[in-house]
Write a structure and sequence with these properties.
The protein has 679 residues and is mainly β. It has a domain of 102 residues. 3% of the residues lie in helices and 65% in strands. The chain has three helices and 42 strands. The strands form two sheets. It has a 26-stranded antiparallel beta barrel. A hairpin with a 4-residue loop joins strand 35 and strand 36. It is elongated.
Length: 679
């Protein structure tokens, strides 16, 4: 077939492919322009001749006068993992311009592109795509526009484009903006941007910036709206700052229609040797109560260094009702104390020395007409710990601490405590462990309000602890039954004293008790499926009522999960404590039941929870907390989570004493994920 004398054509009927291996730089450039059109900044542009380009087409023509190649009919160009397809391609050797028309498609490992037409300048590495859709395979981001221009190595521009991570033709959500600038592997920025749900605009912003194909990028996160009876309508707007690879920060602005504006800042960083740190500060001027509320939290861990290590766990509020006013989580609202601890530790050969400070904030307000005695603060404590070390046939361990206990009101003291133990074990079928301990404690009291308390006090104690243990087992076809009886005798001699209690050291007092225990274990397929331990203690110092409350500990893993820890008073014929948790899987529902009972502390609380998924992409989690002592229903919360292909929504509702609140959290796939700094 000939079109004048200027054409030399090759044509074959049907679908027979014309394969050409091109070593010329022009043909390699044809493929590599499209290959690098959507590539990451690290892509190597290589024109080595040994890397062959394979082009197949139904028709291939060359015009010698214009020095143009024209390929038609299912044109496919392949080089390594990059494939370009089009109905027609036209390439000029003179201008290095390439035009691809009809069902243009490009694919490699990271990106995919479709367009009706593509005009490119291979020399300048620029071009223009028409009716184009760009797909990033890593995060499933899609950028589509009538015109998409390549303006540099990894820079693209569109007069108007949409951005989404949804697969559907009409996406569940998208951003649509003008003057769109794209940096591959980094960001997409636009002006006059609307956020759309099912192509209906719901929010507008004059400017938008979002990360694409990267995990961390500075920008606003999705706002969280909410409502509370006591705080009113709320809106939380977080801003994420990717400071560096190993550090970042989040700034939060909370607006409450009834309480004012609160601001919070969290700063995080990581360093080598498993050093992690997170700091949080929050302040709000409460316009309803006329008070300033401040919260400071910090967690710094540096535990793995070989020389000096340490940690800091800081928790501070300036108002003891901060969490009742501004936190919806039950476990946070009902906590009694806030603990702050900082420690520096120097490891040595099988021992360590440490310097510690510990501060407690009592969140319980004093009862009317009484003064709440403040918790004792360790400011500071210096200690030395010798781990168990073999000395002949025995093991030696020791602890020495020097502590300053300070109270705002009440007794303060300096205390020196020395506690050493010698342990020896023996036996095979029946094993026995006996420990002898010596304890000496000295006090130097100050700020003394009790005239009967001497300024200085010395206290000594002797301890003996012995335990004998054995086990029997029998195997059955389906399980193995193990019985482990044990007996323990614990004796402490210490002079009677009326010392104020600073910590558990003051509870180390006169004791003489025998304890019998029987443990039953059921092993199924190598795993422990059932445990039941029954323990009876006898106080030999109490001749009138020697039997201590009998204790039952039980655990079951299948077919339901059950944990029980209860104690029963033989003389009073009553339960003293009961802590139980039961989880029952029923079809698609996990039902949980629990009880917390303590007769002495007048605590009797039942908890009920359920987790179920009525549909594949919907999960419901709910819980109730009921106080039997008279308060009734104390807390109830329900969380509904919907997870779609490209977005998720979390709706939380909480009913607490005197308040009801809910909030809504959205997450857009590929946009709102910020995992924190990397080590």
């Amino acid at each position: 077939m000939t079109k004048g004398d200027n054409f030399k054509a090759v044509s074959e009927k049907g679908r027979r492919a014309v394969r050409a291996l091109f070593s010329a730089r022009q043909w390699i450039g044809v493929v590599f322009l499209l290959f690098t059109f959507l590539s990451s900044p690290s892509t190597c542009i290589c024109l080595a001749e040994e890397k062959a380009t394979v082009i197949t087409a139904e028709h291939l023509e060359y015009n010698a006068a214009t020095q143009q190649y024209r390929m038609t009919g299912s044109v496919t160009a392949t080089r390594e993992d990059a494939v370009i397809k089009a109905d027609e391609m036209l390439y000029s050797e003179v201008t290095s311009e390439l035009t691809a028309k009809g069902n243009v498609r490009y694919d490699d490992r990271e990106t995919s592109l479709t367009a009706d037409k593509a005009d490119m300048d291979l020399e300048a590495k620029t071009g223009r795509l028409y009716d184009a859709v760009l797909l990033g395979k890593k995060n499933n981001y899609r950028i589509s526009g009538k015109i998409l221009e390549k303006q540099g190595e990894n820079y693209y521009y569109s007069p108007e484009a949409t951005f989404t991570t949804c697969d559907t033709p009409i996406p569940d959500w998208c951003f649509k903006g003008k003057e769109v600038n794209i940096v591959m592997g980094d960001t997409i920025k636009s002006q006059g941007t609307s956020f759309r749900i099912k192509d209906l605009p719901v929010l507008y912003s004059p400017y938008m910036s979002a990360s694409i194909d990267t995990e961390r990028h500075t920008g606003f996160l999705i706002p969280m709206p909410g409502y509370s009876n006591t705080r009113g309508i709320s809106l939380s707007v977080p801003f994420y700052w990717a400071i560096a690879e190993d550090k970042d920060a989040t700034l939060v602005v909370d607006t409450f229609s009834k309480r004012g504006i609160g601001t919070g800042l969290e700063y995080r960083f990581v360093e080598p040797d498993n050093i992690k740190s997170a700091w949080w500060a929050y302040h709000i001027r409460d316009t309803l109560l006329g008070r300033d509320f401040l919260e400071i939290r910090a967690l710094h861990e540096d535990r793995d260094r070989g020389t000096v290590s340490g940690f800091l766990n800081l928790n501070y509020v300036n108002q003891i009702d901060f969490y009742q006013q501004f936190d919806t989580h039950r476990d946070v609202r009902i906590q009694r104390f806030l603990e702050s601890t900082g420690e520096i530790s120097v490891p040595m050969n099988n021992s360590r020395a440490y310097f510690l400070s510990q501060y407690w904030i009592d969140l319980q307000p004093p009862q009317t007409g009484t003064e709440l005695v403040s918790a004792p603060q360790k400011l500071p404590e210096v200690g030395y710990v010798l781990n168990y070390t073999r000395v002949g046939d025995v093991m030696l361990a020791a602890t020495t601490t020097a502590t300053d206990f300070y109270r705002n009101n009440g007794v303060s003291a300096g205390r020196l405590d020395l506690y050493s133990k010698l342990s020896h074990s023996f036996g095979t079928d029946v094993t026995a462990l006996q420990t002898v301990g010596f304890r000496g404690t000295g006090y130097d009291f100050y700020s003394v309000t009790d005239t009967d308390l001497p300024k200085g006090t010395l206290r000594g104690a002797f301890e003996y602890d012995a335990t004998a243990h054995t086990s029997f087992f029998r195997s059955f076809p389906l399980f193995t039954h193990i019985i482990e009886p044990s007996i323990r005798y614990h004796f402490i001699y210490s002079p009677k004293s009326s010392l104020p209690v600073f910590d558990s050291t003051e509870l180390f007092g006169k004791t003489s008790a025998v304890e019998f225990s029987m443990l039953n274990r059921g092993i199924i397929k190598g795993s422990e499926a059932l445990t039941v331990r029954l323990t009876q203690g006898i106080d030999t110092y109490n001749s009138s009522s020697p039997f201590l409350p009998v204790r039952l500990e039980a655990g079951l893993k299948t077919p339901v999960s059950l944990q029980v820890d209860a104690s029963y008073d033989y003389y009073g014929r009553r339960l003293e404590t009961m802590f139980s948790d039961l989880t029952i899987p029923v079809s698609k529902v996990n039902l949980s039941l629990g009880q917390r009972y303590n007769r002495t502390e007048a605590i009797n609380v039942y908890t009920v929870g359920a987790t179920f998924s009525p549909l594949k992409n919907i999960q419901v989690v709910s819980s109730l907390w009921y106080d039997v002592t008279g308060a009734g229903l104390r807390d109830a919360d329900v969380t509904l989570k919907y997870t779609g292909q490209c977005w998720s929504m979390r709706l939380e509702g909480v009913k607490s004493p005197g308040n009801f609140s809910f909030r809504v959290m959205f997450e857009l796939a590929g946009v709102t994920n910020h995992p924190g700094p990397k080590q």
